[in-house]
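Hey, quick one: can you model this chain's 3D structure?
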Amino acid sequence: MKLIGSFFVIGSMTGLGIWKAEEVKRSYQALVKLQNLIGSMQSELAYAGSDFGEIFGQLAKHTDAPYRNWLLGMKLQMERRNGSTFSEIWSGNAEGFLKDSGLSGEAMEQLKTLGKGLGGQDRQMQIQSMGRYLKQVELEMEEMRRDIRMRMKLRVCLGVSCGILIMLILI
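Sure thing. Here's the predicted structure for all 171 residues.
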């Protein structure tokens, strides 16, 4: 009976380690999607001269959830014009729709900071703000690429080690 219980403890802790390792990969993939979206926004703003409402509507057609919901929420709130500033709409929708997207807390704060900068600037400054944001995201992604394998292995090993430790304590 102790042997079966030991296998269950080790197995569950290993599963927890694998789940945490997948969070690292999910966070990286969320950054890639966000980078593509902001890059598309920047291109639409620079070359097509569209306003943000149009940009959000166009991008939502080609994007999957939760980013589609975020973009559509932005578009709808901008059309309503209920007295909120652009940065308030941006931050509120980011918190509401992207909280389960896999973005880290730091990436979410950078996204909100971008929204604060976009609201009160002219078109050229908005494009430059997006460019700076994309460079920040690229640096963060580069750091994650270097460490992703190590972080994933570390989390799996910690899960296995914790399972063995718990098993030893219980026996």
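One thing worth noting: The CA atoms of residues 117 and 129 lie 7 Å apart.
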